[in-house]
Structures are given as structure tokens and as C-alpha cells.
Specification:
Elements lengths: L1 H4 L3 E7 L3 E8 L5 H4 L1 E3 L5 H7 L3 E3 L12 H6 L3 E8 L5 E9 L7 H76 L10
Antiparallel strand pairs: 1-2, 1-6, 2-3, 4-5, 5-6
Length: 193
């Protein structure tokens, strides 16, 4: 995005209730490049999330929507073009944006390019989420398989022990039955000696 639009800064910025943080960042000044986040007082991306629409600013110092934003002073944000990053469920996660330190007019072609690139960003995020879910499912499958193997092993040990414990008294009963049978006559009555 920075190369296509000849902008010194490009960000994939996610916004929550307390801050914006950068999943990807090019050209941020320090300490923000290392911190990979700013408070919302320094966020133009928050406006993209709130309005759920493209935010195009040619000169932030003159734009009443953002003129008081501390990013102008602390990060040198003058021109800004931000595209909402929208999940499949319709939730706006943040903004894909380019920033310039001098005033500039953004063209319709540049806006269209940024929208196409934002769609690529969301596709990449969805693919990563699917891979993460697949990894989680594989871990769960391995856990279930291990649990099933443990259950089979425990069942086998139980049956082995149970059959041994059952066999001992049964052998005595069978032996006693054989003794009784040998003492009974054909009519089932005890034989008389």
C-alpha cells in the first residue's frame, strides 16, 4: 500500500475500547514502532471503526473531524486514507490505512486500490483464523484419541482383573458343583451308600 500510493506510513490497525494496536506497520516513528500501539487519543483509525466507512483526510490540521487528534503533533499525521476492516459477521475490527506527513489529495483510484488491498487483508485474516481453528481441532482430536486409548487400556485392565477375581470364586463353585454332581444319582437324589 505504501509503495502503490507513495505514502511513508501504512498500517493494519485494530481498535478496541482502550487503544489501537498494529498487526502490521511500516514507517511509524519511535516509540510507536516498537510499542506497536497508541492510545485512542492518537487514532484516526477509531473514526473509521465508529463511522464504518472510508475516512479520507487531505489535511488533518484543517479537518474538524480530527483537528484535535494528538497523532497530528506526535506522529506527524497530516494526510490519512483509512479503509474499514470488516469481519464476515459485519464487525469492524479496525482500519487499513496509509498516512502522509504532508497534505495531499487522494484520488478515486487510490481509494479503490486501498479497498482492494483491504479485501486482501481480510482474506488473509480469515485464512489465518481457519488455520488456527484447524490447529485447535487437531489438538482436540489428538486429545480425544488419547482419551479413547486410555479408556480402552483401563477397560482392558479392569476386565483382566475382574475376570481373574471372578474366576477364583467360580472355580470353587464349579468344583463344589462337580462334587455335588458326583454324589447325586441319575434321579438327582443323593446316592445311598
Amino acid at each position: 500500500a505504501a509503495r502503490f500510493l507513495e505514502a511513508p506510513v501504512a498500517l493494519v490497525s485494530f481498535v478496541d475500547q482502550d487503544r489501537q494496536w498494529f498487526k502490521s506497520a511500516l514507517g511509524l516513528p519511535e516509540p510507536y514502532a516498537t510499542l506497536r500501539q497508541t492510545p485512542l487519543s492518537h487514532s484516526f483509525c477509531k473514526a473509521v471503526v465508529v463511522t464504518r466507512s472510508v475516512l479520507l483526510i487531505e489535511d488533518a490540521r484543517l479537518d474538524p473531524r480530527v483537528a484535535g487528534n494528538l497523532a497530528i503533533r506526535d506522529l506527524g499525521v497530516i494526510a490519512y486514507l483509512g479503509i474499514p476492516l470488516v469481519s464476515e459477521s459485519g464487525y469492524v475490527l479496525g482500519s487499513f490505512c496509509v498516512i502522509d506527513g504532508k497534505p495531499r489529495q487522494w484520488t478515486e483510484e487510490q481509494v479503490a486500490t486501498m479497498q482492494e488491498l483491504a479485501a486482501v487483508v481480510m482474506t488473509e485474516l480469515r485464512l489465518r483464523e481457519l488455520l488456527r481453528q484447524q490447529e485447535v481441532e487437531q489438538v482436540e482430536l489428538r486429545k480425544a484419541k488419547a482419551a479413547a486409548e486410555d479408556a480402552v487400556r483401563i477397560r482392558g485392565a479392569f476386565l483382566s482383573r475382574f475376570s481373574h477375581e471372578l474366576r477364583t470364586p467360580l472355580n470353587a463353585v464349579l468344583g463344589f458343583g462337580e462334587i455335588l454332581e458326583s454324589e447325586l444319582g441319575e434321579d438327582g437324589q443323593p446316592e445311598r451308600a
